[in-house]
């Protein structure tokens, strides 16, 4: 985990993984849902997540650094870096 910012209605994470970002996002959603259900914070019929989300490959260190800076410091004021 390089960076994480949990917002009121979404989450931003910059993660290094040996699988694609779609797999990572699916795992985050599944584990978070399970934890919320076990804590009694989410009913069995409640839909928590959208169908997909933004997944991006970061191919070099500069891209990772830009994504981390956005997630931690700029997401309230700047568009996401390309």
Précis, in short:
By secondary structure, this protein is of the alpha+beta class. 39% of the residues lie in helices and 10% in strands.
> Structural class of the secondary elements?
alpha+beta
Rg of Cα set: 14 Å
* Largest β sheet strand count, sense and barrel closure: 2 strands, antiparallel
Q: What is the 3D form? A: globular
Compute the average pLDDT.
89
**Quaternary form:** single chain
CA distance, first residue to last residue: 20 Å
Q: Helices and strands, in N-to-C order?
A: EEHH
Strand content: 5-15%
Number of helices: 2
Description:
The protein is of the alpha+beta class. It has one domain (3-74). The protein contains 2 helices and 2 strands. The chain has a two-stranded antiparallel sheet with strand order 1-2. The protein is globular. The two termini are 20 Å apart. 2% of the residues are buried. The model has no long low-confidence stretch (mean pLDDT 89).
List the helices and strands and how they pair.
Layout: E1 3-6, E2 11-14, H1 21-38, H2 61-74
Antiparallel strand pairs: 1-2
Descriptors:
single chain; 82 residues; alpha+beta; two-stranded antiparallel ribbon; 39% helix
């Amino acid at each position: 985990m390089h960076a994480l910012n949990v917002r009121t209605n979404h989450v931003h994470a910059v993660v290094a993984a040996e699988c694609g970002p779609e797999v990572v996002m699916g795992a985050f959603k599944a584990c978070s849902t399970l934890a919320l259900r076990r804590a009694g914070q989410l009913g069995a019929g409640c839909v928590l997540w959208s169908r997909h989300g933004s997944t991006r490959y970061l191919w070099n260190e500069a891209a990772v650094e830009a994504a981390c800076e956005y997630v931690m410091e700029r997401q309230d004021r700047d568009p996401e870096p390309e």
